[in-house]
Amino acid sequence: MLVSFTILLLFQCLGEGIAYVLHLPVPGPVIGMLLLFAALLAAPALQRKIEADANELLRHLSLLFVPAGVGIVAAASSSSGHWLALLAGLMGSTLLTLAVTALVLRAASPKDGDV
Question: Where is the chain membrane-spanning (predicted)?
Fold first, then answer.
């Protein structure tokens, strides 16, 4: 388990470092996830090392959202004058997420003759 968490943390730190050094507007963990995805494609043996522990983390994913929820509640008072911008951002990102998900599912689903 320690090796798996070390690998996951290493990719997250690598992503954070790249985002910091290159001043990218993308969060470091997202870059780390993309790097991990590329590493998993390049080295399938890495998947066997981290799969069980990553699934265990996913089982308890709801606990990882507690600090984010507390942060949102704590910062709610500082964003009281920006509700319209926040609402527009939430709606825009939700619609964009739904559209991208639909396009990915459409591209990944088997065609009529493929079944």
Answer: 29-46, 58-77, 83-105
pTM of the model: 0.57
Q: Which two tokens stand for residue 39?
A: 């590493």
CB 28 within 8 A of CB 19: yes
Token pair in block for residue 59: 């089982």
Per-residue pLDDT of the chain (115 residues; tens, 9 = 90+): 888 889 999 999 999 999 999 999 889 999 999 999 999 999 988 888 898 888 888 888 888 888 888 887 887 777 778 889 989 999 999 999 999 999 999 998 887 766 5
Q: How far apart, in whole angstroms, are the C-alpha atoms of residue 7 and residue 45?
A: 13
Token duo for residue 78: 């500082």
Query: 3-state class of 1 per DSSP?
Result: coil
Q: Would you state the torsion angle of the CA atoms of residues 54, 63, 84, 99, taken in this order, to the nearest 10 degrees?
A: 30
Question: Chain centroid to CA 51: how far?
Answer: 16
Token look-up 């090392």 returns 49
Structure tokens at 52: 């069980």
